[in-house]
Write a structure and sequence with these properties.
Blueprint (H helix, E strand, L loop, with lengths): L2 H6 L8 H32 L2 H27 L3 H22 L2 H6 L2 H29 L9 H30 L1 H19 L15 H14 L1 H16 L6 H8 L4 H24 L6 H21 L3 H29 L5 H30 L1 H22 L1 H4 L4
Helix pairs in contact: 2-3, 2-6, 2-7, 2-8, 3-6, 3-9, 3-15, 4-6, 4-8, 6-15, 7-8, 7-12, 7-14, 9-15, 10-13, 10-14, 10-15, 10-16, 11-12, 12-14, 13-14, 13-16, 15-16
Length: 414
């Protein structure tokens, strides 16, 4: 296949056997991770009946993730990525095993609700430290598996895989809580993560592209400086950071499900999955028919639309309306994910991928947990509904301000 035809064919990366193993392993692993998040949210709120406690779950994860992110990028670039990824998954298996114990009848009888909640937060902190290494490693490996001409298609497929795993994990987590209970759900998660580990073991050893000739801090600064010099990357990261930070309504879904919409764990699972359903619809459509022009402007429109959907979700007291508001927010987020991930893959040189992806994880991935903490604190101060309305309004404000402050991103096409 020629370079030109490979670039035009959105399915070209799937002809590479190793990419298939990567996608399958990542899908199953992400499904397990997202199931964990669903179960933790429901479990913590059952134990504490406190929206603020949900915020502290996010804070528990984001502190180690942020603290280690820059060093993780340096470490990823100077080490073999396959081995590092497999070690991260094994450590995650240990964390899930601890959650199995904490959800046992023995632990429930032996410890108070708030003691269990504190222990859960400690385990989540450990997963945050692991994620500082595993998330950027996944992203950095794509360019070492597929040719450069196929990177836009590979980025779209990878994003779609992540979102499919996310929606499956969210929905399955709700169903499993209802039918088999919290502890058995964690046993299921263990099976998924182990399966992902076995598939990812089939990847080949990757060459180390960055030869470390400087000290750790100088190496870290190279990644940071590259992000701040590349305005398209910086603008896309910043826009997503503040939009997710203030628009983190999903963190409060357990509260809306239990206290406002009065639905059980199955309804909670679907509500929690609604945004991901919208995202996967959009990402699948954009994988089949990629965006051809004006991607920068579309990114701004998508973030603004996301804010409007969050406000609609906040004021709704009807399950189906809340579901559709979150689904549409996911559609908007799917557009943002595709554009941002493609910009990152195209604009980042191979020897800097670990460090740039780690900076990206600080901006993007950790914004979810910071947004969860912000949502919990805002809900405590303002009340649950006003806090989510405030978040949606702030997301709109961020989109408008960035439109004028980042003209190069607004004009970008690829």
């Amino acid at each position: 296949m020629s370079t030109a035809s490979a670039h035009k064919n959105p399915y070209a990366p799937l002809k590479i056997p190793e990419f298939k193993y990567f996608i399958a392993g990542r899908y199953i692993f992400i499904m397990g991770l997202r199931m964990t998040g669903t179960v933790i949210g429901w479990w913590i709120y059952l134990l504490t009946n406190s929206p603020l406690a949900l915020g502290f779950v996010g804070l528990s994860e984001v502190i180690p993730a942020l603290s280690l992110a820059l060093y993780a990028g340096h470490y990823i670039d100077i080490n073999e990525k396959r081995k590092l990824l497999l070690r991260c998954i094994l450590l995650y298996i240990v964390c899930i095993s601890l959650l199995v114990f904490l959800s046992s009848s023995f632990a429930e009888k032996s410890y108070s609700s708030w003691t269990l909640a504190a222990c859960i937060c400690a385990v989540i902190a450990a997963t945050g430290a692991i994620r500082a290494f595993s998330g950027p490693t996944f992203s950095a490996m794509i360019a070492q598996i597929v040719p450069h001409a196929q990177l836009p298609a590979a980025a779209s497929i990878s994003s779609a895989t992540w979102l499919i795993g996310s929606i499956t994990g969210h929905a399955a987590g709700g169903f499993l809580i209802a039918y088999v209970g919290i502890q058995n759900t964690f046993f299921c998660i263990l099976v998924f993560v182990l399966t992902g580990f076995l598939l990812l073991r089939k990847l080949t050893v990757k060459p180390i592209l960055h030869i470390n000739k400087s000290n750790t801090w100088q190496s870290v600064k190279e990644g940071i400086n590259y992000v701040f010099k590349t305005k398209e990357i910086l603008g896309a990261m910043s826009l997503d950071l503040f939009a997710v930070l203030f628009g983190g309504a999903v963190a409060m879904v357990p509260v809306f499900a239990k206290d406002i919409l009065h639905i059980g764990p199955i309804g909670f699972g679907w509500l929690n999955a609604a945004a991901d359903i919208g995202s996967i619809i959009t990402v699948t459509a954009l994988t089949i028919r990629p965006l051809q022009k004006k991607q920068g402007k579309l990114l701004f429109y998508a973030v603004a639309g996301f804010g409007v959907c969050i406000i609609l979700f906040a004021v709704s007291e009807i399950f189906w309306l809340s579901f559709w508001a979150l689904l549409l927010s996911g559609c908007m987020d799917g557009i943002s994910v595709i554009i941002r991930s493609t910009i990152l893959q195209l604009k980042t040189p191979g020897e800097l991928r670990g460090r740039v992806m780690s900076v990206n994880s600080m901006f993007i991935n950790s914004s979810n947990e910071l947004g969860q903490f912000e949502s919990g604190v805002a809900a405590k101060i303002m009340g649950i509904v006003p806090s989510v309305i405030f978040g949606g309004c702030m997301t709109l404000t961020v989109a408008i301000v960035t439109w004028f402050k980042a003209p190069s991103l607004r004009k970008m096409e690829y």
